[in-house]
Amino acid sequence: MIxxxxxxxxxxxxxxxxxxxxRPDDARLALVxxxxxxxxxxxxxxxxxxxxxxxxxxxxxxxxFPYMQAGSRRxxxxxxxxxxxxxxxxxxxxxxxxxxxFAGGKSMGGRMTTTAAAAPPGLDVRxxxxxxxxxxxxxxxxxxxxxxxxxxxxxxxxxQGTRDALADLDLLRPxxxxxxxxxxxxxxxxxxxxxxxxxxxxxxxxxVMTELADTAATRMAGWIAG
Length: 226
Known about the structure:
Blueprint: E1 2-8, E2 17-23, E3 29-34, H1 44-54, E4 58-63, H2 66-69, H3 78-95, E5 101-106, H4 108-118, E6 128-131, E7 156-161, H5 169-178, E8 183-188, H6 205-225
Parallel strand pairs: 3-4, 3-5, 5-6, 6-7, 7-8
Antiparallel strand pairs: 1-2, 2-4
């Protein structure tokens, strides 16, 4: 296993952002993984997901957005977030030119990754993984945040919980269905936006993480196989 702290230069951002690169000895592919709006790459969920994926032969690059690097709670403008996604994907192309690349992220990180893929010149990756896509603000159902998905030409995987307050499944299901066979929606029963489950569900956090990592790794491998 290779684990190293790296820095990524982002165009028009004065300070490089930190990242963590994890490559297992048996790596078959690489995932560029962005964090959500309120927690950076060191959040326990991000760390556990990266570790679980490396156990499944997936190399992972976790990285900070500039606002999180600076210690701010206010996300950067979309232009800066998208530029950071692109810079992180390019960095993995240098770190592991031998591995097929994928990109995605938790919540806002997934939305900004799909936004980057939707705008020219797109992203040089084989597919996208959205972990808790934030379709709308809590208690304000809507679909405006998904409009750009129609112009994403890459395969897409959406991992969503049934209790996610930021993604009404009655709204998300038809959106994913309209994208056609390139898109897949995997529902995690009982999970909220952070993929926590109630004790009465009988499920554990480890079981949910196993489901997320297994699904993501299997789907990405399937995209490579065609």
